[in-house]
């Protein structure tokens, strides 16, 4: 009762205030208006502040300074003008007369910047954990069609790789190494709405977000910062904040650009004369298949360059308009964006139309409400990547025409060996494979401030996603291959809801002792459902609807989905003593439906302390030092990414003679629980010379235990062929990551005309698998039936695993072991000891013979020394994890010009070139890489003696040959192109990711058009990449975000070079 | 001091306020218990007699898939030399089978798959049947599981000797490294399973599910094996008479129960329309090829049949009669009925194949396997 009455009192007081205000209004009307004008400049260097806000306090009236910092406004005598600009301390001045009023704004210390930390905000200076930010300026630099790209190289400790260069393609973000085998992507929180970065689709989860809408990205890296997100925090958290309305005159911003994209380089494949020569040699060796038209390769034309047919200069455009404004009590921001990016490869492309509206209002002094709503429609064409068209293009014969004179697609005609490839241009054009997704994100919140220092926030939010995939193959045939027409349509709906309440209480209990306490509760739940149908036998390619297909071939499937839910209680306590000693402690309890009743709940605590050394009295005299802070943090966070209902037993279904039958689908594990990471972070922030030099270093050590994975069990327990129950999800194994990361920001030059700023990041991470379910367990990374990587205890995750090539059999003597003096080694009976060769199924060495192992074949290393080449001789042949990654950004401004360039790179990681492995085999048909034209050529010592006599044969180009000898198809038992270090390449690179020149149009040109600011710019993305890699592009990423399949170039869609010109207008 | 008190009371007030908010918004207990909506769970599936019966049916196809797919021909026909195929699993005919032979390890894994699937189904039936399920249906289903597990171990025993016996799958997950059980024990286990099946299965099977006589037939076969599988036993003629009496006893019961009889025409056995016939005690039962589901259909059919005789997508036809087999048939030229029904005989007319084209005449000069070739997919419509 007491509480209620005090509230009433409060309202009453408000009412009084309103009445007073109204009484004063008429007075104002009589006040005298005067014109005030002047220049707003930077207090430190006198540079004009463009687009600074000049506002009449307490009203919505105001203006902006122009490009030269000048402003002009008409106000009443006695009014107060507020001058402000991002990064500067606001200044209030009372107008006593008209005329000139020049203002010098002091740079606001970056440390006072307020940043989002999850369920609240903090001053940067109060941070105890490791948190990095990038702002609007950096997000807008270069062509970043998705947000993750904007983070690449700009945040120390964050390793961003595009898993595909295709428009809208997938991205992997690794924050501080590999923490988990079941899902390593961070948690994204967009305006308070959380979503996992893990996805099974070939696009990024942030694809629907327009980067132009974003004002800030904060990356929480260490566990003391992320622990407030508890069970989903172990891979780091990325907080994304969209633009909100600002008090003042409404401003309209337009930003648009058009661009042209090109593929930087082609792979070198054989042209027609080279192919004909190769073909002739092989025909001769196999004794059949000679072709009359290949008789004189030198007379042939170059033939079709399939890559040239497949790749094109592609156009892209992006437009964005936003309106931003508000009064003292009401703010809004509305924006719309459109992106249309054709792919450089036919059959690829991405479009996004997005709309966002943010609104908030103060209803009373103690109640604020607001909403965010965004809607996006994304369309992606994925025929190119899904059909692996690059592979088809590399294999298709150079004598096939892309199109016949009558307009039909060319297919191989003459073909002795019945091997055909489809026409890649046909596939790219005629196969339909696209997605069309709609996403609606929304949230509504109320901030209640019942007493001073207390803020209660209640927020409901969520999203709805409607996904559509369209797939169609027309009837077609080539050679003996006949493909039936088929259409598949899939619809899916995803739902996510979040309801949270948290209260923050903030106050100084005693002078110099500042406390903040936050406690809250959150419930989240979601669901995903789908429906899919297929029909065949389409009589025409014109329509692809299921309706027009053959109803008797219809099949369908659907899933009502599994709801998931998380309930959480969380709290954070901050204590700041004399601005010198800082303490943050958090605790979160998460209950998750991912685990059984025994293990619903997990507890995630953290604690961190920081010492602001420069605020100590003994440091007071060191003027040049702006900031010196030492931070130490610890946290225990979780990861819950396993299959849905992984702990329980489900029934699988299968067709039987009786109709559908059911069998136990999996092994249950009611004890399944969180994967948890314990992490330590030690950091130092240093800033000097009025923050012109800023240096941040963080070192961390993390250990993840209870790794979530499906148990690897022998084939008498789990049927390898998926005929029975699947293996249980278990908590087994551990991974360790340690690393160090550096950030250096400097202002090299800053005066009236010139400004030069540099930002650099460097990240080093070392990863080690420390435990698996049993001593000898390993995890293989396989694609198809080939093993490419192996992860075992004591080494990093996902190292390349295969054979080592130690040379080539050049002549007969190479088949026998020699000592250092070059003398043959002899066994007990005086026979020469053979060099290890592959064996047959009985374990006997394959014979030395033309159709077996012969001169011109590669020699593999006998790792275990048993004299045979077997699977046991596979060893580690490379490591995709880089030694370090870095980014270097420079922005140079001279008067109205701004030049910026951004370099990023990666050093020490290896790439497995699967494309080269598959296209340099002298066996098998189809066209090959041009390396194959330089095959090992065999010569005879005695031309009159037999070519089948091993002592008579030698490799004539032994020192220069790029690939093995040509042998008749299917007869070389050496399997020269097996997974080996021949295909491991250095993946280090340095890339000029962005080079941009911008020019702000002179003020006098703009006045007539009543524009505040116009900038035109030109930008080149990926101008050059320095690397030793043979493929298209050294930025490979991971197969479907899998941490055990990183750095394998499995026909990755190459990143393109993009030339853009853009325009920014503000009025 | 006063200030501290007021702070204390205020924080108490606030604490109450927050508690109120939290208690209003806290979720109910079942919020975190979410069950899949696209799949049955073990707890909810066994809710009727029909469901329990459906829960054993994959034991007739999917469980055996990789055993039936290829190895069964290699282990059976190649080793017996009644037929052979130089292109598929030829190692079996050449006596080159090793532990690495793919079909061999697939078969081994498939037989253990029958074991794990039977174990899990048994456990589910014991633990999760609702009150709607009758004791009769429960017993019948459990009998089928024991029968299938017994057969799987019987194949494992005869193919591999000593094996790992287990009834609790979880034991294998917790520690997959288990010792082998000696052959004698495996056989005892098999007989125990068949005996349980005999006791649990109904007098008459429902809808092609087995009767107790299927278990008795199996028991007879197992006892026959056991009669000569004693420790230290050498040679084939030293058998345990008591066990042989049991064999006779069970065989008599099966023969005289009145549910089974021999078909009138031997060739009818290998016709699609005779898929279920009066000779069948127990059979693998495969799904319609039209379902297109890998693991559910009889993939062996693709190896045995050839495009000429069927419109089902097949690529085989290379299993041909061995010379020994042909010699055996030729010993009695009058025995053309069995020959023609099991192998395609040159110039022989098969009225029941390719019926739409008016039958099929075999025109080749060799003898391809016939008994596994049922004909076109029209045979799905039994007539």
Describe the structure.
The complex is a heterodimer of chains A (1067) and B (383). Chain A is mainly beta. Among the domains of chain A are: 1-30; 31-108, Carboxypeptidase-like, regulatory domain (Immunoglobulin-like), CATH 2.60.40; 804-872 and 923-972, no CATH class. In chain A, the strands form 14 sheets. Chain A has a 22-stranded antiparallel barrel. Chain A has a five-stranded mixed beta sheet with strand order 11-16-17-14-15. In chain A, strands 1, 4, 7 and 8 form a four-stranded mixed beta sheet that branches. In chain A, a hairpin with a 4-residue loop joins strand 36 (675-688) and strand 37 (693-705). In chain A, helix 8 runs antiparallel to helix 9. Mean pLDDT of chain A is 88; it is low at 1-30. Chain B has 383 residues and is an all-alpha fold. Chain B has helices at residues 2-25, 42-45, 49-54, 65-80, 91-94, 102-128, 135-160, 169-174, 183-200, 212-227, 241-256, 300-304, 323-331, 336-342, and strands at 83-84, 320-321, 349-350, 360-361. A two-stranded antiparallel ribbon of chain B has the order 1-2. In chain B, strands 3-4 form a two-stranded antiparallel sheet. The longest helix of chain B has 27 residues, at 102-128. The interface between A and B is large, with 71 and 72 residues.
